[in-house]
Amino acid sequence: MTKGAAGMQQIVSELFRLANHSNAPGTIAGDIVTKDGVLTLSDGHRIDVVIDYTNAGVLSIGVDKARCFTLKDAVRITGAKPVSAVSYPYVEGHNYDTYSAIASGVDVNIGKFTAGEDCLTEIHLVDVKTAADFVMKNKLELPAKNMPVLKP
User: Fold this and answer.
1) How high is the pLDDT of residue 4?
2) DSSP letters of 82-129?
């Protein structure tokens, strides 16, 4: 996160490599990178799904709960703070518990979907500038944090 957009690109590239995905990041907008199954990281934690929205400034990561990494620990490590119920590009349900940490132009959103769940299940990396540019270029009206509000 402290490396900004370059650090985010490094993470994206490494996840594509681990998934043996032949396409370059940003070329498969909205597609699932992990079609061949779960990715096991070097520390033993597993990633269920990686969705590439990097052309819109977002990488979405689903974390497997089999080896629980608690949301509480993720919040402690990242210094993330609670955020409102809407976070670009996802509209979250009432059970979604979201935290955000922003540094060097990258917003790291972490959270969980299920009430009473302790495990981290979602990570969204957002390049704030790229996402803002995408929102403006495509004239999207999102009630989203960190995004500009479109004026009529």
Assistant:
1) 87
2) E--SEETTEEPPTT-EEEEEEETTEEEEEEESSTT--B--EEEEEEHH
Q: Determine the pLDDT at residue 13.
A: 87
Sign of CA dihedral 38, 47, 52, 86: positive
H/E element, 61:
strand 58-63
Contact 106, 82 (CB under 8 A): no
- In this prediction the pTM is 0.81
How far apart CA 150 and CA 80 sit, in angstroms, is 27
Tokens of 14: 């490494």
Q: What is the 8-class DSSP label of residue 70?
A: B
Task: Give the pLDDT band of residue 28 (cuts 50, 70, 90).
Answer: low
